[in-house]
Amino acid sequence: MNKIIKLTYFVVTTSLLSQTAIAEEETLSERVLGCVKITQDKARLTCFDQATEQYSNKSVDLAVTPLAAQQVDSNVTQLTAEQVDSFSKDQVKKTAEETAKEIASITLTISKLSKSPYGQWRITFENGQKWQQKDNYKLSLKKGQRVILTKGAISSVFLQKENSTKRIRVKRLK
Question: What is the rounded distance in angstroms from the CA atom of residue 86 to the CA atom of residue 109?
Answer without folding.
Answer: 34
